[in-house]
């Protein structure tokens, strides 16, 4: 089942409160099935390669993940979102393997 238009709108960077320390390039979603067989969303947050993870607190990441989940709920999306942060260079490394 393709990701809905509502989901894409909820994850549009214009609709999210992005902390200044997170240099977010994009937020992408795909349909996902969790370990229990329940439908869910896999949300990938792509950070700029220049982002220094050492300067980002867990509280900042937690707040951003909460903002994503709140935006999804506000757009009528009740699926649980599994949220992952990555960088383009890490995606390229995985693609090469």
Mean pLDDT value:
89
Strand-pairing-aware structural class: alpha+beta
Q: Please provide the ordered H/E string of secondary-structure elements.
A: HEEHEH
Strand content: 25-35%
Distance between the termini: 28 Å
Could you give the order of strands across the largest sheet? 1-2-3
Radius of gyration, Cα only, in angstroms? 14 Å
**Major beta-sheet overview:** 3 strands, mixed
Provide the helix percentage: 25-40%
Would you kindly provide a written description of the structure presented here, covering whatever features stand out?
It is a single chain. This protein has 97 residues and is α+β, with helices and mostly antiparallel strands. Helix content is 33%, strand content 26%. It contains three helices and three strands. It has a three-stranded mixed beta sheet. The radius of gyration is 14 Å and the shape is globular. The N and C termini lie far apart (28 Å). The mean pLDDT is 89.
Short description, anyone?
This protein is α+β, with helices and mostly antiparallel strands and 97 residues long.
Please describe the topology of this protein.
Layout: H1 5-10, E1 24-33, E2 39-47, H2 58-74, E3 81-86, H3 88-96
Parallel strand pairs: 2-3
Antiparallel strand pairs: 1-2
Keywords:
single chain; 97 residues; alpha+beta; 3-stranded mixed β-sheet; 3 strands; 33% helix
């Amino acid at each position: 089942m393709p990701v809905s238009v509502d989901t894409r709108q909820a994850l549009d960077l214009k609709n999210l409160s992005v902390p200044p320390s997170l240099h977010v390039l994009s937020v992408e979603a795909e349909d996902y099935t969790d370990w229990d067989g329940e439908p869910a969303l896999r949300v990938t947050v792509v950070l700029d390669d220049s982002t220094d993870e050492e300067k980002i607190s867990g509280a900042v990441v937690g707040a951003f993940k909460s903002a994503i989940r709140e935006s999804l709920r506000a757009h009528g999306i009740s699926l649980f979102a599994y949220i992952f942060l990555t960088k383009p260079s890490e995606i390229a490394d995985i693609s090469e393997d």
